[in-house]
Amino acid sequence: MNISKTSRRVLAVISAAMACSTMGVPAQADTARSTEGAVVKTEAGAVRGTVAADHRLFQGIPFAAPPVGALRWAPPRPAQPWRGVRDAARPGNRCAQNADAISGLPGSASEDCLYLNVTTPRSSRGLRPVMVWVHGGGFTGGSGSDYDERRLAVQGDVVVVTINYRLGAFGFFGYPGLAGSGTFGLMDQQAALRWVRRNAVAFGGDPGRVTLFGESAGGDSMCAQLTSPAARGLFHRMVIQSGSCTELNVPDVIFPGVGAEYDTWKPRALVESIGSRVAPRLGCADPATALECLRRVPVADLLAPQQPPVFWSPAYGTPTLPVHPARALRDGAFNRVPVLAGTTRDEGAFFAATYPPLDETAYRGLLAVSFGGDAERVAELYPAGTSPRQALGSVMTDRGYACPNRRNDQVLARWVPVYGYEFADRDAPQSFEFPQSPDFPLGAYHASELPYLHDIVGLDVTLRPDQRRLADTMIGYWSRFAAAGKPDAVWPRVPLVRSLEPGGVRTADLNTRHNCDFWDSLL
Asked: Which of these is catalytic: 236, 446, 454, 514?
């Protein structure tokens, strides 16, 4: 099999693969309307939500003005106040994105999408911790309304806020002279956090105990907000789930040979040069009028794949993100808050499952692209065996997630309390439609922890009793961390982590599980 051809084929599913962390479609909550506690006054006006026996739910609350027309590729502006009581029984629009066949996520052509949702326990008491969820999806898909947070809010006794942010070309486009190039989606997240700071009390939330948490692209967003000066004071704890705060080009680990344009963290100059190349293809060749022209380009044209494909993601060297997150963390130049961080035990299995079938020759060819003269050493440690795709997934897991995050946690621990975990239920349920059925078990694949913490709207997941107990344990850890800045009294110090599995939570060493000393030796 031609290796470059293999890489091109799997690049066609990179957005879908990274988008599957949300695994659901929006739907209305199945709760009855009530008048008691249903109306809450926000800074822009009153909203009427849905009240059930144990929770209240408010959906589709605007936290910023619609970024349309002249506001396409502009920092978020305040939402316009409204008169009367706004209905908050349904979610707002999804941000513009393509439909995804693997996850079943629907598409959207709407730029009017800066909405959030608030779930609170029904009972009255003092102000509760607030947890703000940033969804994953490869920075190209997903929505806050894909997550039903009733279980987390009620069991954890917390206020949960889920948010939308601009995606793909709408959130991370860059062009020479465009203020904010490559960071509009990050600005949206910060605008939502500022909304939380101003409005949390109205929903029974404590603006002095805000935990920001996210997974996959949401985890990457954690790295950005942790190191963004503009986010200082907007949150007080952070949970990083399967995020990359390192200098490693994770997309290149997943799809060898894709290069710097696909890196999660790109310098502003690169993002702007990509924009300059794309603009003429969209009919906006004159630099003097290109931005005005591009703001008139139909949404569908901006969603259409460009050639070569572009992995739209945040730019650094900007006011929002001055330096690469890895450098900021090494220098201690970040927002000092306690951190709970971790990955899943078999992160790479999901991405390997998006590959076409591989034989050993193709597998070794991919290793050669990635490791050059060290490829043979990697092949000895990760033999192709009966499933080269499974072997490749193990390489992705260890090199791309487990070991870089272990090093990152050690860096963070120089400055702030850090609590590490690994989600390790290797029998976690899954519901995807891969181009070719996996010929190996997915194990604790990328995003497999999500149904343990959230109910995914539109996805019917049944957990065994022991898995449900693990889910309850995880909600306890996450919510206690949100309340007090520590998941429990006896959490081990990094590099040891808590291994979260149905048979019981125990301490684990990532080096033993993932050959981290070996991968560190290749740096």
From this structure: 446
Asked about 446 being catalytic, the answer comes back as yes
Of 347, 422, 449, 501, the catalytic one is 347
Is-catalytic flag, 123?
no
Annotated catalytic residue, options 216, 228, 313, 387:
216
Torsion 249-252-254-256 (CA) sign: negative
Assigned token pair, 288: 């003097």
Three-state secondary structure readout of 240-303: EECCCCCCCCHHHHHCCCCCHHHCCCEEHHHHHHHHHHHHHHCCCCCCCCHHHHHCCCCHHHHH
The pLDDT tens digits along the chain (523 residues) read: 444 444 444 444 444 444 443 333 333 334 444 467 899 999 999 999 999 999 999 999 999 999 999 999 999 999 999 999 999 999 999 999 999 877 778 899 999 999 999 999 998 788 999 999 999 999 999 999 999 999 999 999 999 999 999 999 999 999 999 999 999 999 999 999 999 999 999 999 999 999 999 999 999 999 999 999 999 999 999 999 999 999 999 999 999 998 888 999 999 999 999 999 999 999 999 999 999 999 999 999 999 876 556 767 999 999 999 999 999 999 999 999 999 999 999 999 999 999 999 999 999 999 999 999 999 999 999 999 999 999 999 999 999 999 999 999 999 999 999 999 999 999 999 877 777 788 899 999 999 999 999 999 988 899 999 999 999 999 999 999 999 999 999 999 898 999 999 988 999 999 999 999 999 999 8
Please name the helix (run of DSSP H) or strand (run of DSSP E) that holds residue 159, with its range, or none. Answer: strand 159-163
Amino acid at 187: M
Q: 461-470 — which CB contacts under 8 Å span 24+ positions?
A: 461/429, 461/431, 462/429, 463/429, 464/502, 466/502, 466/503, 467/425, 467/427, 467/428, 467/429, 467/502, 469/502, 470/425, 470/500, 470/501, 470/502, 470/505
**466 secondary structure, DSSP code:** H
Structure tokens that stand for 514 in this block? 């993932």
Q: Is 449 a residue of the active site?
A: no
User: What is the token pair recorded at 376?
Assistant: 């043979």
